[in-house]
Each structure stands twice: as C-alpha cells, then as structure tokens.
Specification:
Pfam families: Fer4_8, LUD_dom, LutB_C
Number of domains: 2
Radius of gyration: 27 Å
Keywords: 4Fe-4S, Electron transport, Iron, Iron-sulfur, Metal-binding, Repeat, Transport
Number of helices: 25
GO molecular function: 4 iron, 4 sulfur cluster binding; metal ion binding
CATH superfamily of the largest domain: NagB/RpiA/CoA transferase-like
CATH architecture of the largest domain: 3-Layer(aba) Sandwich
CATH topology of the largest domain: Rossmann fold
GO biological process, one term: lactate metabolic process
InterPro entries: 4Fe4S_Fe-S-bd (IPR017896), 4Fe4S_Fe_S_CS (IPR017900), FTHF_cligase-like_sf (IPR024185), Helical_ferredxn (IPR009051), LUD_dom (IPR003741), LutB/LldF (IPR004452), LutB_C (IPR024569), NagB/RpiA_transferase-like (IPR037171)
C-alpha cells in the first residue's frame, strides 16, 4: 500500500505497528461480552470518570466557546501542517534538539533502537505514550535485547501482566484492585508477600519498584501531548509525576510524536490546557505539566531527540471527510460515554486506539479494505454521545457513516454487482416513494405476524438483516398499520370514503 507524506509521494508503507486489528470487531466483541468481570470494571470506571468530567465542565460558562476554539485551531494546523512542521523543526534544532523523520513504525523503531545503542545501555524508562504503543516499540526493543520499563502506574500494571492497554487514558481500566494486587505479587520483584489490595499500599509498592529505575536510567522515552511551532517546545501532561522524573533525570531523552500534535503558538496552548484535563481525568488542571525546548546546559537531558512520525497520518489527512480525526488530543472522553465501548472494552477493537475515535482513526490511517478494519466503523450505535463529549468537536458519527460508505463501495468489486444492502436500499426507496407503494407493502405484514407466531416477536431474519436478530428480538408487526387505523377511525359514513384514499393512489407519500 502506497501513501503520501505531507502531500508528497513516498515509498510504500510496510510496518504500521499496533494499528491493524487481527480479527473482526463482532467476533472480538462477542468474546469480550462473555467476561462479566470486565463489564463490571468498565461500567464502574467509565461512570466515575464521566461524572467527574461533567462536574468540572459545568463550571465553565464558556465551555462551548473553548471547544469551538480548539476545533478551529486544529483545522488551521491541518491546513498548514507542512509549514508548521518546518517552523517547529527550525526552532527545535536551533535550541540543541535533533529531529528524525519516520514514515512508518518500522523506521521509527529502528531510529529509537539506534539512539539507545549509541548510549551503550540495554534498559530504558518510558513515559506513557500512545505513539510508542502504536508502533509497537516495547515489543520491538525486547526483540533487540533492550528492556523498556513503563513508569505510568496503569501502564506498569498492563506490562507486568503481559497484557495490552484497553483505554487511551486508563490503560488498566479493565482490571480491579484485587487483580492488580495479584499481578504485583506474581510479577513484581521484591514485593511484600502480605501486600493487600488497598490502593495506597499498591501505589506504595509501585513507587518503590520504580524509584530504582528512575535513579539508574540513562535513557528515557516519551511521547508528547503538544508541540509549539513558534517556540520549538514540547509538552507532556500527566498526573503521577513519573513523567517529570523521566523527562529530567536521564542524560538522553527520546520523544516519539505524531506529526499532527502541533499547535501554532503558546497562546493556542492556553485553550488546550483547559480542554484536555477536564475532558480526560475530570480535573481542572493536570498535576504535572512538563515543557522543554531543546537542550539547556546543566539542566535536564543533554542529548535530546524527537522522532516525528507519519505512519498513516498522511493518508488520513488526504481524506477530506475524515481528516478531522487527526484533531484528536487523546483525552478519551468519547470512550467514557460510548455504550459500545462500555460493554466490550478496548481489546475488542484490536488497535492501539479503541472506542469511537479508534473506530475511525485506525481505518483512516491503515485503510478500510481488510475485513478486520472494515468492521470497525460499524462498532457504534451512532447515538452521537461521542460528538457531544469531544473537546475539539470531532464529528465521529459523521465520519463513521462516511467510512461505512467506503466499505460498501470497496466490496462491490469491478463488476459493480449489487449487494444485499444495495437491494434493500433500492426496495426501501421504492416503498417510500409513494403512498400506494407503501400501502401494497403493508398488505404483506400479516404474513410477518403469522411468522412471528404466538411469541409476538421475530427471533430470526435472513441475510444481512439477520445481524439484528443475532443479539435482539424484533417485535412482531402490529395487528393494524397506522394507515389502516387512521382510515378506520376517520371514515366518513356519508361519503363512503376515507381521508386516506388520495394517499393510497400514490399522489402523496
């Protein structure tokens, strides 16, 4: 598959890391729905987070204006992305930083590996980073004989359990505290064998484990929440302080960042520092906000690198309808309000990016042609809660419908043979084109009532519509249609006709 890199043709993209699903969403969701503990954990966690978010968002009378400002800023960034990237590169390198460009996951992983080997170490500490998860950096470094230690508490839990994150903000959201205690007892060296599942005790055990890593690490790896073009400055926001330790103590700092994370100026950062914490953790501000601009002699890392990652972002940028998915600031607000995510969890999506944003971002970046990716845009009820929650107003339902259309078009093939969906839509068009057609169709409904039997419900339908009855029963058609009822109730005995006769001639729909 070929791609373009910021509008310029490039070589084919071979390695995209953890973006492609390995099984279809329906198959994965069916398996995850059988995990009652998962559903209980997710239900409790998502309700808690979204309730906190609603409280702090409600404090701001200009919240909708902030959302509009964030959306407008991101639109401007996408329109000027090549220019802003060049500006950022110039300012970052002028202050002693070194920039590396990576077209895909394979290139990014190799760059990071070589930078680590230059320092002669085989261990690194990591700040929580979606970009490094996306490219599968931890797994790649392990293959190369380099141990990467996650320092975010939730990421540490997932790593120790040899699991994968299931949420953008809270990677271990699918685990409760008893499960965490069992993981620590099983996997964490030197942990107290009498460790309880008290949250404070669990945090204390993790802190003692990580402190040794912070003090000995010579190389740290991070992502970035924002990059300010006119200053060459990177920003990381976090809640635990582990990021601050990684960003200041080691001699070498390597950051991996998607090219879309740019903001034009410091003034723009003000808006996002109000949007992000409220939308993600339900806080008025993040406990730790770290910013660095290149190298400062005698203070912090003296060997500073930034890997700017494309990995399918140019493909998403080229999609006029879908490019706003790149506005995402990884707050996870859409996931916390999504009824589908709340029941299936993040693993069902098969990608680094789960939930509503993942259902559009992964197909946009990697293509809609594979069976696994093509199922993701259907992992939604299109209720619109994600759009209402998004701090930068990404119209996720609209993009989902757009991608569904692309999926249908891609499956028609060269002969353009009509699919079941094509035939159904054609039939619906005929039925609703006139009152006469609809009346004829309604005359066949008694057959449906007979087929439903005494249970007064339809439990199985054929073909494509059978997807509905796989997970729900459909009520049987009523004894009489609305049109029949209306005709009966409003019949004029004197005239011997009904007000609906004209509709049945096809003159009205």
């Amino acid at each position: 598959m070929s791609t373009t890199y910021l509008g310029m043709p490039t070589l084919p993209v071979f390695g995209q890391g953890n973006l492609n699903a390995t099984e279809s969403f329906p198959a994965a969701a069916k398996r995850e729905l059988g995990n009652s503990q998962l559903r209980a954990n997710l239900g409790h966690a998502t309700h808690t987070i979204r309730d906190k978010r609603l409280r702090v968002v409600g404090e701001l009378p200009d919240w909708e204006d902030l959302r509009s400002a964030g959306s407008a800023t991101k639109q401007a960034v996408m329109a000027r992305l090549p220019e802003l990237l060049e500006q950022f590169e110039q300012n970052f390198t002028a202050r002693g930083g070194i920039i590396h460009w990576a077209r895909d996951a394979a290139e990014a992983n190799e760059i990071v590996r070589d930078l680590i080997r230059e320092q002669g170490v085989d261990e690194v500490v990591k700040v929580k980073s979606m970009a490094t998860q996306e490219i599968g950096l931890n797994e790649y470094l392990e293959e190369q004989g380099i141990a990467a230690f996650e320092t975010d508490l939730a990421e540490l839990i997932v790593q120790l359990d040899h699991d994968k994150p299931s949420h953008i903000l809270v990677p271990a959201i699918h685990k409760n505290r008893t499960q965490v205690r069992d993981i620590f007892l099983r996997e964490m060296p030197g942990v107290d064998p009498d460790l309880t599942d008290n949250p404070a005790k669990l945090a204390e055990a993790a802190r003692a484990h990580l402190r040794r890593k912070f003090l000995s690490a010579k190389v740290a790896i991070s992502g970035a929440n924002f990059a300010i073009a006119d200053a060459g400055t990177l920003a990381v926001v976090e809640s635990e302080g582990n990021g601050r330790m990684c960003l200041t103590l080691p001699e070498t700092l390597i950051t991996v960042m998607g090219v879309e994370k740019l903001l034009p100026s410091w003034q723009d950062l003000e808006v996002f520092m109000q949007l992000l914490p409220r939308s993600s953790t339900g806080e008025r501000m993040n406990p730790y906000t770290s910013l660095w601009t290149g190298v400062t002699e005698g203070d912090g890392p003296q060997n500073v690198h930034l890997v700017l990652l494309d990995n399918g972002r140019s493909a998403a940028l080229a999609d006029e309808m879908g490019r706003s998915a790149l506005h995402c600031i990884r707050c996870s607000a859409c996931m916390n309000v999504c009824p589908v995510y709340e029941r299936t969890g993040g693993h069902a999506y098969g990608s680094t990016y789960p939930g509503p944003i993942g259902a559009i971002l992964s197909p946009l970046m990697t293509g809609i042609t594979s069976e696994e990716n093509s199922s993701l845009p259907y992992a939604s009820s299109l209720c619109g809660a994600c759009y209402d929650a998004c701090p930068v107003k990404i119209n996720i339902p609209e993009i989902l419908v757009h991608l569904r259309a692309e999926d249908v078009d891609s499956k028609r093939g060269k002969k353009k043979l009509p699919s079941q969906m094509d035939l159904m839509m054609k039939g619906a068009s005929w039925a609703f084109s006139s009152g006469k057609h609809l009346g004829l169709l309604e005359k066949g409904l008694p057959l449906g009532r007979i087929a439903a039997g005494r249970k007064k419900k339809i439990t199985k339908l054929p073909g494509l519509v059978g997807g509905w009855t796989q997970s729900r029963d459909i009520p049987a058609p009523p004894a009489a249609s609305f049109r029949d009822w209306w005709a009966k109730e409003h019949k004029d005995p004197a005239a011997g006709s009904t007000p609906t006769d004209s509709a049945n001639t096809g003159e009205q729909a």
